[in-house]
Structure formats: C-alpha cells, structure tokens
Amino acid sequence: SAIPEIKSTHSLVAKHVTKEKWDKLSGIVTKTSGFTLAKAIACAVEFDNQHCGIYAGDFDSYRDFADVFDPIIQEYHGISADAKHTSDMDFSKITGNVNPDAPVHSTRIRVGRSIDGFGLSPGITKEQRLGVEKLFSSACKKFPADLAGDYYPLTGMDEKVRQQLVDDHFLFMSGDPNLKVAGMERDWPEGRGIFHNKEKTFLVWVNEEDQLRIISMEKGGDVLGVFKRLANGIKAVGDSVKAESGKEFCLDEKYGYVHSCPTNLGTGMRASVHIDLPGWTKDGVDKLKARCEELALQPRGTRGESGGQTGHTYDISNKHRLGYSEVQLVQTMSDG
Question: Nearest Cα to 326, choosing from 32, 131, 94?
C-alpha cells in the first residue's frame, strides 16, 4: 500500500519511515497481537504535533519493525547502535537525599513493566488485556504487608470508590486523543484498574499506557525512601506474577524494560518532585528549562505532561530513561 501522509512533519517518524522502509515493512503483521507499522505510526499520521510519533503494539513490534524503531530509539535516547542497557535498583547506592529545607510538596517515582506473552496497550487483544488484569489481581494478594492493599477494577466501580480515587488524584481517565488514536482505549474501561496499598504510597495502574505502571509516592522530599519502596514494590509485583504464571517481565538486553512508547524504554522510570520555585517563575520558564537541561532534568507544570503551569509549583524529573541505570537517574534528580 502507498505510504501514508505523515502530518507530524518534524517527528522522528517522518524522518525514519522512508518509502523504502514502508514498502519493506508495511505488510508485516506481528505474531503476538497482530500489530502493523501503520498502527504503530497512527499518531504521527493523524496529528501534526508529535515529536516521536510511534508506539509498539507488542514486544515483537520492536523486532519486526526494527528498521524503523532502532534509529528512532537511538536518536531519541542518544545511544549508539550497539549500546546495552543495565538495570540497577540497589537503593543502598544512593548518596544523600533532597535537602530537607527544600520546599518539596511531594515525591513520586514510577516505572512501567510488561508481562511477557501479552501485547502492549496499543495492540493488546481483548483476551490478553483481561489476562493481564486477572493475573495481576490474583498476584497482588501475595504482596508483603507494607505493600498490601486492594485492586479496584474500573468496570462496575462503585461511585464512592471512584470519587475517592479522583480526590486522591489516582484515577486515570479516558479521552486522551493520543492514546485513543494509538489504539490504547479500545474496549474502555474493560480490563483496567488501580491497585493501592493502605497508606496510598504504593500504586499500580493496570492496562493504561503500559500493562503495569508501578508508582511509589509520598508527601515531602524523601526520595531515598520512595525509591526504596519502589524497588521493593517492583520485586513484589515481579515475584508474585512469576509465582502465579511462570511469566517474567519483558526485558531486552539492548533496550531494557519494554514499554509501549519507545521514549520510556530502558528504566521506564520517571522520578519527580513537586517543588516551589518562585524565583524561577519570575525568570520565566525558558530559563528554568535551560537550567534543567544542564542538570539532565525536565520541568513540567504540575498538571502533567501536556498541562499548563499552576503558580510556582513545578514538577521536576529526570530526562533520560535509557542508557542510564535507575540508581543514576534517581541520583541525578536528587542532586539537581
């Protein structure tokens, strides 16, 4: 078929999906979830504002469409073609912590994980999605005491529970145009849900942009404590899933932990603090962006990725995901 018109002309997709590559790959259908290159680049074709513009529908996509994914990943993450990714969750290696006097409201670190044998959100079949949910909802009953809690499926959710999750800012919503076009909201809300422990410091989102998004968070600036809980939490989820199904997380020696969005490959980790920076607000966001760039950090408004800026409170996080270990990234964010 003819190569589609790519509206995001400045995207990595526009640069790397050439006619030759399209002709070679457009007929391939992946084994795990029947994904195609056309589905992978749907956002870059549909919208004109994509920077990256491509998603994987299963682990196979990264291999089957490697001629497109590899150069995009290398360019985005600034890695060489033969780079290997190393994971390191050893929290004893973190030195220091965020200055206790710093005006930090809260600290949050998240990673994504995918269970082998199931598609990723853009391509996952209905059966596979329900399979991930079923596997997680029984695995989470085996968590150790400090991580123990309840799984709340979105389907048939009690209104009181829903309101509480909204008030806690835990609930993820449908309606994001990117996720929609990428195929991540098919059969909504079936197979999706949220787990949290009793203290509300450990959360897992099930079948949102990634099969599992594992989150550790609390008020204040104890980055080390939050990372420690995350490390224990990832291990608990991994061990419980393996005990339940014999399946492991998808881990690629080159690209680390597999995520649906290539920008999250590697650690898939975003460590962030919400911090008041009134001085920087005066100087303007461009200066803050430049300073963060020097520190390998990324500022956002406190309303999430696409949200605006509210007052003086910024969300400051690590910029890199791949080619750095988890310990290095948390250290970067803490030092900065």
Answer: 94
Task: Tell me the mean pLDDT in the region 238-250.
Answer: 96
Residue recorded with tokens 């310990």? 327
Question: What whole-number distance in Å separates Cα of residue 156 and Cα of residue 159?
Answer: 9
Segment 24-45 mean pLDDT = 98
Q: Report whether 328 contacts 292 (CB < 8 A).
A: no
Please give the positions annotated as active site: 110, 209, 213, 261, 263, 270, 300, 305
- Chain position carrying tokens 């360019």: 75
Mean pLDDT of the chain: 91
Rounded Cα distance between 265 and 181, Å, is: 21
Residue 311 pLDDT class (50, 70, 90 cuts): low
Contact between residue 325 and residue 88 where contact means Cβ atoms under 8 Å apart: yes
Q: Is the peptide bond before 262 cis (omega within 30 degrees of 0)?
A: no
> CA 10, CA 168: separation in Å to the nearest integer?
37
